[in-house]
Design brief:
The protein is an alpha/beta fold. It is built from 11 helices and 10 strands. The chain has one domain: Aldolase class I (TIM Barrel), CATH 3.20.20. Strand 6, helix 4 and strand 7 form a beta-alpha-beta unit. The chain is globular, with a radius of gyration of 17 Å. The protein binds phosphoenolpyruvate (PEP) and manganese (II) ion. Phosphoenolpyruvate binds next to loops.
Length: 285
């Protein structure tokens, strides 16, 4: 890959294992499962999700509090109040949380309250933001731009790494094409290529790729079979009532069933999904 330096594999077996918390990693033999709503809506919503997913093998929770919405009139996220909810949830349920950072001025607060920072598709080439998260001591999930080439995606990761943060997790989330039946086209070829070209973990978000909940489980299974290191999937206690991305949200029951269905695929390709006991610290209160 032209110009790439820090993402490049030094030998075929070279792969980076990144820690999200003391117990949760991505990039090794263990597959990472991240679930949660598109947007954090309330403490009750996040408590319901954390409780219901607490006995599944979901190892981290997602939830946006600063939302990149197409319309300025759409819900923009709970902001700092949402961050406080995420912080409470991660402590109460001892589970790492991931949330999107849209602007440099949000980084300090987000890094103080979340375990993993997400750079959304729309900001994949916001180079000042990439440089700034490069100076943070927290892992970054870098989502592929809506129409970014594999080269551009890799160079975005190089921006973060060359500014000091080597904990970059690549996330394929679908790219734009001509067919509006699916929201985007899930590019599993890119997943295979990124695993060959870089030593970084590559996870897949089938929710934003599909845009329709009924497509998500099969795409998720295909992603794991193709060699993805994990999944990030949107789910909600009442999917149809999600304030954002309702059409693609899974119910919590479907989410639990989906992660269960991945075990035989993981085994077939020499991977595993860690048990709840392995990834959760005993809850203190
Ligand atoms: C999200 O994860 O909710 C999101 C906005 O994703 P993307 O940046 O991939 O569109
Ligand atoms: Mn979303």
């Amino acid at each position: 890959m032209q110009d790439a330096k820090l993402t490049v594999k030094s030998h075929t077996a070279h792969r980076s294992v990144i820690a999200l918390s003391d117990r949760v990693t991505v990039g090794g033999d263990d597959l990472l499962m991240i679930g949660g709503p598109c947007s954090v809506e309330s403490l009750e919503q996040m408590e319901t999700i954390a409780t219901r997913l607490g006995n599944t093998t979901i190892q981290a929770l997602r939830g946006g509090v600063y939302k990149p919405r197409t319309s300025p009139y759409a819900f923009q996220g709970l902001g700092e109040a949402g961050l406080a909810i995420l912080d409470r949830i991660r402590r109460l349920y001892s589970i790492p949380v991931i949330t999107e950072v849209m602007a440099i001025h949000q980084i300090e607060a987000i890094a103080a309250h979340a375990d993993v920072l997400q750079i959304g598709s729309r900001n994949m080439q916001n180079f000042d933001l990439l440089k700034a998260v490069g100076q943070v001591d927290k892992p970054v999930v870098l989502k592929r731009g809506l129409a970014a080439t594999i080269q551009e995606f890799i160079m975005a990761a190089e921006y973060i790494m060359s500014h000091g943060n080597s904990n970059v997790i690549l996330c394929e989330r679908g790219i734009r094409s001509f067919d509006s039946y699916t929201r985007n086209v899930l590019d599993l070829g890119a997943v295979v290529a990124l695993k060959q070209l870089t030593h970084l973990p590559v996870i897949v978000d089938p929710s934003h790729a599909a845009g329709k909940r009924e497509l998500v489980p099969d795409l998720a299974r295909a992603a794991i079979a193709a060699g993805a290191d994990g999944l990030m999937i949107e789910c909600h206690p009442v999917p149809e009532e999600s304030v954002s991305d309702a059409r693609q949200a899974l119910s919590l029951e479907d989410m639990a069933a989906l992660v269960d269905s991945l075990h035989p695929i993981a085994t077939a390709i020499g991977r595993r999904i860690p048990t709840v006991q392995e990834t959760r610290e005993p809850v203190l209160f």
